[in-house]
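Running this now, will post back.
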Amino acid sequence: MNPQQFGKVAVLMGGSSAEREVSLRSGQAVLNALSEQGVDAFAFDPAERNLFDLKSLHTDRAFIALHGRGGEDGTIQGALEFLGLPYTGSGVLGSALAMDKVRCKELFKARNLSTADFLVVEQGAHFDVEQIIAQFGAVMVKPAHEGSSIGMAKADTAAQLNQAINDAFRFDDTVMLEKWITGREFTVTVIAGIAQPIVEMVTPRGFYDYEAKYQANSTQYFCPADLTSDQTDYLQQLAQQAFKLVGASGWGRVDAMQDKDGQFYLLEVNTVPGMTEKSLVPMAVKANGINFNQLVINILEQTL
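Update: finished.
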């Protein structure tokens, strides 16, 4: 690897989404890895600088470490396309679709990819919490356009559901109500179209929420996950199908669950996963003998 081949690299981090703090940590880790390998890289926070400054700074390409809205939803990708700057990860369409949980689910359903049943509620519209609980039992409430489990909550009574929906409306005007799945949680990293070893996340918190991801010391990770070879092959292929279906490319992560009967269900596609010390993508590739610095270079090489 010749670090000069990349030219001047902007590591986009921070931003103004609800995931700003995680993005700053991801971006700093990426910046450190690039700098350690001799790449001319610098930090760039779109919340603090005009994006057009990238041109005056003679930037050659961008490593996107922005999470959530403005960074993972096609917005920054479109701006970089306009500026003529190569960037890491998915393009405009793949980023936008993957960030939209509702359209992701609709695509999964349309292609008969296994995913849990769901409903959508809009702010200001009528919804009957009693009827929803009667239909689904327990429900996972998710803002339609947030990541890192922000605004998510489980509800198994009408009162809990009403509160959870109103809490989720603080983050989004559209909220998805997904039938609760009791079982195991997994994630599959996809790099250059190839599924990496599966990671299983085990938390005492009920589900893999924001605290379990970034703050708790009680979360356990198993990689490769304890699955049969047939189950591993099936889940990896399912993840690759989902990744391709939404138009994602480059690198990313697909989350899934397995119920008590062994059935797998797709949850969502992440096109700019976390790259912190607790992140899942570095954990997955490490099982394939790839360290963090190599991972960062592999991702950046996709922009050449």
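The longest helix spans residues 20-36. More later if anyone needs it.
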